[in-house]
Write a structure and sequence with these properties.
The protein has about 150 residues and is α+β, with helices and mostly antiparallel strands. It is built from four helices and seven strands. Strands 5-7-6 form a three-stranded antiparallel beta sheet, sandwiched between helices. It is elongated.
Amino acid sequence: MLLSNQNTFLPINLNSGDELVASVTKKRQHHVPPYFAIGRSTFMNYRLEDGSQKVVEGFNMTSILRDLSANATWLFWTLVMERDLNTNIAQFTPIGISEKNKVKKGYKELEEAKLIIRVKRQTYLINPKAILPKFQDFAQVYAHWTDLIKQKKP
């Protein structure tokens, strides 16, 4: 017996007394627009490259975003739009005194909320628990985040 589906042929050998039951289902086509994920307060297990597992506590972004000032909100979403999806690093150069003041005020608040940290001048790392990078890059971005936090502490 030979089954065919346009370009695919599948030979099947049946013994006497065997019965072949087949069904055809259409593939689901999900029409989901591009999106990114924000953190939520829960726990997540992920496997490190060495095979060990690590538990990461989530980040309650809903309540944090609700309480941000206008300057901090503007800076945060500006950095999110400018970020590299793999590294969560955003480069942003403010234009004019008005934007420089927004960045100065907003940065202080976002750093205190542990949403961003300055990597170098005009370069920021967004907390990977707040705005998630691509899944396969999470461990590396999270390690970079924790290293910068440790360096920042006095």
